[in-house]
Amino acid sequence: KTIIMKNLLLFITLLFISVPAIQAQDEASYGFAKGDWILGGAVTFGSSEIDGVETSGSEIAPAIATFISDKWAVGVAIGLESMEVDGNKMSDTNITLGARNYFMDLNDRNKMYFSLGLSFDSGDSFDDGMTSLGAGFGLNYFMTENIIIDFGLANILSYAKSGDNSAMQIGWEGEIANRWASPTLGIIFKL
Predict the structure, then answer these.
(1) What is the CA radius of gyration of the chain?
(2) Using CA of residue 138, residue 73, residue 58, residue 120, what is the dihedral sign?
(3) How confident is the model at residue 37 (pLDDT cuts 50, 70, 90)?
(4) Is the model's pTM score more than 0.85?
(5) What is the secondary structure of 37-84 as a DSSP string?
(6) Predicted confidence band at 6 (pLDDT cuts at 50, 70, 90)?
(7) Mean pLDDT for the stretch of residues 52-80
(8) Cα(44)–Cα(51) distance, rounded to whole angstroms?
């Protein structure tokens, strides 16, 4: 019986020593560091019928970025869009250069960011192509160290120019009626 008791005491002692060590290894580190790469993008589908006019569309826009510091990331996205409006098919291509600054940690898993983007669009929807500039805020939620939910919250600046036409908006009016000012949801993978 003393051998069993000694083995049991040794087992309990090892258990108390090893559990904190195992838990210490499980502590996750959420956030970004200089040199990190992230992969994300958007996939969208939509359709509508308004006053007898049927419209449908889809877009795929993969994106990749690298962190040039612990707070700043720069990247590029390429979007391919297909639309059909009342039987007329169109396709467009979009190239976006972007930058993000993660300026506030709300807690370990939530990071606020400010983003800037410069986009170049061409295709059937544009006679002269379109150049646009945008700025906005968003929030990342780290589900794990490498899987992140991205919430694009609000654009605060948008400017677009196509040929002789241009449009500009500063501030957020609370409306989400166009694709330039809509809240978005995405998934980012930290590589």
Answers:
(1) 24
(2) positive
(3) very high
(4) no
(5) EEEEEEEEEEEEEETTEEEEEEEEEEEEEEESSSSEEEEEEEEEEEEE
(6) low
(7) 90
(8) 23
- State the pLDDT at residue 9: 56
For 185: left if phi > 0, alpha if psi spans -120 to 50, otherwise beta; the answer is: beta
Secondary structure letter of residue 20 according to DSSP: H
Task: Give the strand pairing for 147-162 and 165-170.
Answer: antiparallel
Contact in structure between 105 and 113 (CB atoms under 8 Å): no
Please tell me whether residue 126 adopts helix, strand or coil conformation: coil
- First-last CA distance in the chain: 54
User: Cα(149)–Cα(48) distance, rounded to whole angstroms?
Assistant: 27
Token pair listed for 149: 């939910």
* CA trace torsion 149, 151, 157, 163 (10° rounding): 70
> In whole angstroms, what is the distance from residue 65 CA to residue 190 CA?
10
Residue 162 CB coordination number (10 Å): 16
Give me the residues paired with residue 115 across strands.
Answer: 100, 136
Contact 119, 101 (CB under 8 A): no
Q: Summarize pLDDT for 105-125 with one digit per residue, the tens.
A: 988 889 999 999 999 988 887
- State which amino acid sits at residue 23: Q
Question: How far is Cα 90 from Cα 82, in angstroms, rounded to an integer?
Answer: 6
- Residue found under tokens 């009626």: 177
Q: Is 171 helix (H, G, I), strand (E, B) or coil?
A: coil
